[in-house]
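Milestone M4 deliverable, item 7.
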Amino acid sequence: MAQKNRSIEVTQVTEWEDGKADRVADYLAAEEPLEMRSGRFSLGITLRTPGDDEELVAGFLFTEGIISRREDLVALRMPSNTDAARNLVRVTLNSNVRLAANSAARRFSAGSACGVCGKASITQLRRRGLRRPEAATLFDPEMLCKLPPQLRDTQAVFRRTGGLHAAALFSATGELLVLREDIGRHNAVDKVIGWAFLGGRLPLDGHVLLVSGRGGFEIVQKTIVAGIPLLASVSAPSGLAVQLARELGLTLVGFLRGRRFVIYSGEERIAVSASAPVGAF
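Output delivered:
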């Protein structure tokens, strides 16, 4: 018997159009909590769209600094559709991981829209000693302009619900490698990074991460942790995101739509020639 697709919910709505009301079925993006636990420690709770949960957990633990190597993650006991505790995942970590200190510092709930609540300051983030992304790859601006249509065309759940964010990883030549969707933009990013983490593909030198929403601080941080040199979004970044990208050497692109985009940081990685230096204001 086929399992129910927990990413999508079906409901009845009243649709009004041109003076006529009809009762029709509508598709909604699902949103459920997921708690990550290791022994007696809660590692975090996030609101997410069910699907690719193993990648979400691995990406979250890695980008938040709870684990740093593939060997740190021994096992994930994932819930099933028939599991009474279907929103609880059991995490087994390597004995070398100092879980008590990590979990004490990271008791938070992550909302689907705002990112991690109670996030440590940018000063504390610097103390993690994040590596600056590699600077050898030069990206073609024409290639960047071709990425958003690929992202839209591959968003299967979004086409049905209209209510999901997406994150997609591309090669330096514009080949789509993986795309993940979620009600939370940061969750979609964690799913992509978790895919790479579980597959032993990190750091992601010479890659582009494209997100469907804005490029916020959380997403910039996660991109840098994964070693991705270029982050692009179809909307605007936040001021704190730009500050972090400039400080840690990430190429940050916003408003990537049609044949236009804005470079907020790391212009040297994109084959363009500007009339004035970026950031000279």
